[in-house]
TrEMBL record:
Mycothiol-dependent maleylpyruvate isomerase metal-binding domain location: 12-134
Position of the signal peptide: none
Name by which UniProt lists this protein: TIGR03086 family metal-binding protein
Gene3D superfamilies, per database record: dinb family like domain
Superkingdom to which the source organism belongs: Bacteria
InterPro entries xrefs: CHP03086, DinB/YfiT-like, Maleyloyr_isom, MDMPI_metal-binding
NCBIfam families to which the protein is assigned, alphabetical: maleylpyruvate isomerase family mycothiol-dependent enzyme, TIGR03086 family metal-binding protein
Length: 196
């Protein structure tokens, strides 16, 4: 794979996600997504809820999550698309600094974790949930090959841990000849052939 600088990863993951967000129609908010526990509205809410914490981790500033969970709060009132576009941009900007990927950082709570691990998670979340939203709303996003190679490598390394934490579902078998994105999705427990 081409060796992308860490500082470029989040911005390259974020740009297609922002386009997907801009093209979601109001009548699609209750549509199911490949992320089984969320419909479109709930997944947008999840991104809005965790965005400040992921941004803070890139800045090495802990942003406490609200007391309620992302399933108890609805942040999709008002101009949610503009709010989420701004938040995705802020998160990408925070992780565009080389120092974001150095040392350790925290998302919530006192546990220090390797910053490259959290940065990788941020990039994978943008791509995966972008794909979820695109599939649910009939869009065809495109991430560049080098970024997808990074995502696949990252998921290959963390898939088992992700399953233990409940972040990934059981692996979905995907042909070795499938696209890099499809192979990464399968490792995360997504069915690349999912259709609404």
């Amino acid at each position: 794979m081409a060796d992308l600088p860490d500082s470029q990863l989040a911005a390259r993951a974020a740009a297609p996600l922002v386009e997907i967000i801009r093209n979601i129609k109001p009548d699609q908010l209750d549509a199911p997504t490949p992320c089984a526990e969320y419909n479109v509205r709930e997944l947008l809410n999840h991104l809005l809820f965790w965005g400040p914490s992921l941004e803070g981790a890139g800045r090495k500033e802990v942003v406490p999550a609200p007391a309620a969970s992302d399933t108890e709060m609805d942040l999709t009132g008002g101009d949610w698309a503009a709010d989420l576009e701004v938040q995705v941009g802020r998160t990408a900007e925070a992780w565009s600094r080389p120092t974001a990927w150095q040392g350790t950082t925290r998302v919530v709570g006192p546990t220090e974790l390797p910053a490259p691990m959290i940065g990788g998670m941020v990039v994978c979340e943008m791509v995966t949930h972008g794909w979820d939203l695109a599939q649910a709303t009939g869009q065809q996003p495109s991430w560049d090959d080098d970024l997808l190679a990074f995502v696949h490598e990252e998921v290959t390394r963390t898939a088992e841990q992700g399953r233990q934490m409940g972040a990934y579902g059981p692996e979905v078998p995907v042909s070795a000849s499938s696209s890099t994105l499809d192979r990464a999705l399968g490792l995360m427990g997504r069915d690349p052939d999912w259709r609404r």
